[in-house]
Write a structure and sequence with these properties.
The longest helix has 33 residues. This protein has 3 domains: 95 residues, no CATH class; 113 residues; 106 residues, no CATH class. The termini are far apart. The protein has 1 helix and 24 strands. Strands 3, 4, 14, 15 and 16 form a 5-stranded antiparallel β-sheet that branches. A 5-stranded mixed β-sheet has the order 7-8-9-10-11, with no helix packed on it. A 4-stranded antiparallel β-sheet has the order 2-1-18-17, with no helix packed on it. It is mainly β.
């Protein structure tokens, strides 16, 4: 269960800690906290109320090979960056076509399908090996600015830029905050200090997870909502949504869930827009859902409320209501009665 707050989560090998901020520290004023069970200090150096990050690659003396390519066809064009050795950026899939970049030639049996594998040679040249489901493959030198013809439905690939050695570069800039609070993307500038050294300051945007080299491994930094475990398990069994006639807007939606409780056993419930689930002091409201594409739901989102002091609120409201009734009706009635009791009868 995600709480309505902001927290910086820091993960170290064998350790985990988080610091919760009701609001990011003001610009120019940092915050520090120690990761429990370690000698590492997390330093929040600065913050931005609303930020935008642009990630690029630039040539350097050290680093990994990287290239920017463009896939062109009758459908239009798509482009992307490939970075050798990066688990997230060494391979890209564009539907039925796959691209990858490595610093050594692929070994073994070629992977079937529409695939274009780039290889960064030690002397700085770039080569490619193309395979296809239908048609013959090809291989050769990949020259920036020269298109590579493919048998993939008339597509061609152009290497726009090739960097034999590249390092990532991130530019974070402050933007005017939007009026809606939920549209703001705050950012924190964070560094780690410990016996193994100090990391360079790193900007972490809201709902972002980044890894930084620290000591002999990597530390994980995440800026997101803190989480609180529930004393029971909630599993989504089914989701149904009805749309307004002639539109794609959801008119109503509901979820069927199973609650598994070690104390009370298992039970099934239906949560809809006007019928929340009340269970062990928690109230689950059907808030929204996420579509996976083509109108198919990918996730159901619930708002969870818990107010253990609610009976006291009801009792206080009842006392206030009684007090108002006494003030407007009880006291005037007593005053009139006192006046009648003190009145002296007139004599002739």
């Amino acid at each position: 269960m995600a709480l309505p707050a902001r927290a910086l989560h820091v993960g170290l090998p064998g350790h985990e800690a988080h610091g919760t901020f009701a609001a990011p520290p003001p610009p120019g004023r940092g915050q520090r906290f120690v990761v429990p069970g370690s000698a590492v200090t997390v330093v929040v150096e600065d913050s931005l109320a609303h930020a935008e990050a642009v990630d690029t690659l630039e040539a350097a003396a050290g680093g990994s090979p990287a290239l920017h390519f463009v896939l062109r066809g009758s459908f239009g064009q798509q482009d992307g960056w490939l970075v050798a050795g990066d688990p997230d950026r060494s391979r890209l899939d564009f539907g039925p076509v796959a691209f990858d970049l490595s610093a050594a030639p692929a070994s073994g049996v070629p992977i079937p399908g529409n695939r274009l594998a780039f290889t960064a040679e030690a002397d700085g040249t770039l080569r490619y090996a193309l395979t296809a489901r239908q048609g013959r493959g090809s291989s050769g030198a990949a020259i920036p600015g020269q298109a590579i013809r493919t048998p993939w439905m008339g597509m061609e690939v152009l290497v726009e830029r090739y960097l034999p050695r590249a390092v990532p570069k991130r530019t974070v800039s402050s933007l005017p905050p939007p009026l809606q609070e939920e549209r703001r993307v705050p950012a924190l500038r964070v560094s780690l200090q410990g016996p193994s050294g100090t990391t360079a300051p790193e900007w972490i945007l809201w709902n972002e997870v980044r890894q930084v080299a620290f000591g002999d491994g990597h530390a994980t930094l995440a800026f997101r909502a803190p989480e609180s475990p529930l004393p029971f398990r909630v599993t989504l069994l089914d989701f149904q949504s009805e749309k307004y006639p002639g539109s794609e807007r959801a008119a109503t939606y509901q979820s069927r869930v199973r609650v598994e409780d070690a104390e009370r056993g298992s039970s099934e419930h239906v949560i809809s827009m006007n019928h929340p689930l009340r269970y062990r002091g928690y109230v689950f409201f059907q808030s929204s859902f996420v579509e996976a594409g083509e109108g198919q739901p990918a996730a159901s989102i619930f708002s969870v409320a818990r107010a253990p002091g609610l009976p006291l609120v009801y009792a206080g409201t009842a006392l206030i209501t009684l007090g108002l009734g006494w003030m407007f009706y009880g006291k005037p009635w007593l005053a009139r009665r006192r006046v009648r009791a003190c009145a002296v009868p007139a004599t002739a």
